[in-house]
């Protein structure tokens, strides 16, 4: 019969196994930390590479004789594909981008916030579990589908309302873009509203507030930083949208505030250039990088504003 190990023997076995176990655990932790560091470094490397490429190609664009920094920021005409008469004033493209973005934001932000308040404060758990995933399905629809939807559904409806709308117009592209960013506004705003502690709601109800008063005067202000962050993220997404505006907004770069007019956005111009009609090393091709740099700066500024608002107005609850 095999003798059982004594207490001293068991302690010796434990001491022999412990260094191996600890060293294996330390090695495993180092591998995990190293993997995370590599992943983080890769994202930083990609971002840095994008910035370097944009800066280098934009510098090459301004080396052409046809281009000057003063014309790029001071001219109000953008005609880079008209033979000898080329003009590179960026403001018509910025105007078209801002017009489509304003229409999209005017449609999506209020509807998204109202939907978020309903899902957070009024809807039953069963209704919320049904409506929120249904709404978020819109985020998975390819943007080219939204572009064709704008051409085949939204534009004909607008033309029935007014004959001023042509086949391509800013309103149609803006509404389709608004539908696309609606899930971002609704989902993120609803998450911010539900993060507000229940005690704030109960205190407001105890003071005699109605559900509407509590929602509008207590919950929404308490979640303001998250709501504004959702708004800015959705606006940044609308600024950078490509396929919808390329299909539905048109190709005329002009400064206008008329929603029925045909406009060209910064992303739509880049699509036009990269279709292959322009020579790969000409001024027209290089101009797309200058436009991309301006687009990068615009979205970067929006991101920084969002980060400032989050830090400035964030509410922390125990």
Précis, in short:
Helices cover 74% and strands 1% of the residues.
What does this protein look like?
The protein is mostly helical. It folds into two domains: 7-61; 90-313, MetI-like (MetI-like fold, Orthogonal Bundle), CATH 1.10.3720.10. It has twelve helices and two strands. It has a two-stranded antiparallel ribbon with strand order 1-2. Helix 9 (224-239) packs antiparallel against helix 12. The longest helix has 55 residues, at 7-61. It starts with 6 loop residues before the first helix and ends in a 5-residue tail after the last helix.
List the helices and strands and how they pair.
Blueprint: H1 7-61, H2 69-74, E1 78-79, E2 87-88, H3 91-122, H4 125-136, H5 143-161, H6 170-194, H7 198-206, H8 211-222, H9 224-239, H10 243-248, H11 266-277, H12 283-313
Antiparallel strand pairs: 1-2
At the fold tier of CATH, the topology name of the largest domain is: MetI-like fold
- The low-pLDDT segments are none
Q: Which percent band covers the strand fraction? A: under 5%
Number of helices: 12
Under the CATH scheme, which class of the largest domain? Mainly Alpha
Query: What's the number of extended β-strand segments?
Result: 2
Widest β-sheet, arrangement of strands: 1-2
Order of helices and strands: HHEEHHHHHHHHHH
Tally of individual domains: 2
| Share in helix | over 70%
The shape is: globular
Query: What is the gyration radius calculated from CA atoms?
Result: 28 Å
Secondary structure class reads: mainly alpha
Mean residue pLDDT: 84
């Amino acid at each position: 019969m095999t003798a059982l190990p004594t207490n001293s023997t068991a302690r010796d076995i434990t001491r022999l196994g412990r260094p191996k176990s600890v060293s294996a655990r330390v090695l495993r932790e180092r591998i995990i930390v190293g993997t995370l560091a590599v992943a983080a470094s890769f994202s930083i490397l990609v971002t840095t590479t994008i910035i370097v490429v944009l800066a280098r190609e934009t510098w090459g664009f301004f080396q052409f004789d046809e281009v000057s920094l003063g014309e790029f920021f001071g001219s109000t005409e953008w005609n880079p594909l008209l033979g000898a008469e080329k003009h590179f004033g960026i403001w018509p493209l910025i105007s078209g981008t801002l017009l489509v973005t304003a229409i999209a934001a005017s449609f999506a932000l209020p509807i998204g916030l109202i939907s978020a308040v309903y899902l957070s404060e009024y809807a039953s758990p069963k209704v919320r579990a049904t409506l929120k995933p249904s709404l978020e399905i819109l985020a998975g629809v390819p943007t080219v589908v939204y572009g064709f939807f704008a051409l085949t559904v939204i534009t004909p409806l607008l033309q029935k309302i007014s004959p001023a709308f042509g086949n391509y117009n800013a309103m149609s592209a803006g509404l389709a873009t608004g539908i696309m960013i609606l899930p971002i506004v609704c989902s993120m705003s609803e998450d911010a509203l539900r993060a507000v502690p229940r005690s704030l709601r109960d205190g407001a109800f105890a003071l005699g507030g109605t559900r509407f008063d509590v929602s509008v005067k207590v919950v929404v202000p308490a979640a303001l930083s998250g709501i504004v962050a959702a708004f800015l993220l959705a606006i940044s997404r609308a600024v950078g949208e490509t396929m919808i505006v390329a299909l539905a907004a048109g190709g005329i770069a002009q400064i206008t505030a008329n929603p029925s007019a045909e406009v060209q956005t910064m992303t739509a111009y880049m699509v036009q250039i990269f279709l292959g009609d322009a020579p790969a090393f000409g001024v027209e091709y290089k101009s797309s990088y200058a436009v991309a740099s301006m687009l990068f700066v615009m979205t970067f500024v929006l991101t920084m504003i969002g980060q400032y608002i989050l830090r400035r107005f964030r509410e922390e609850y125990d």
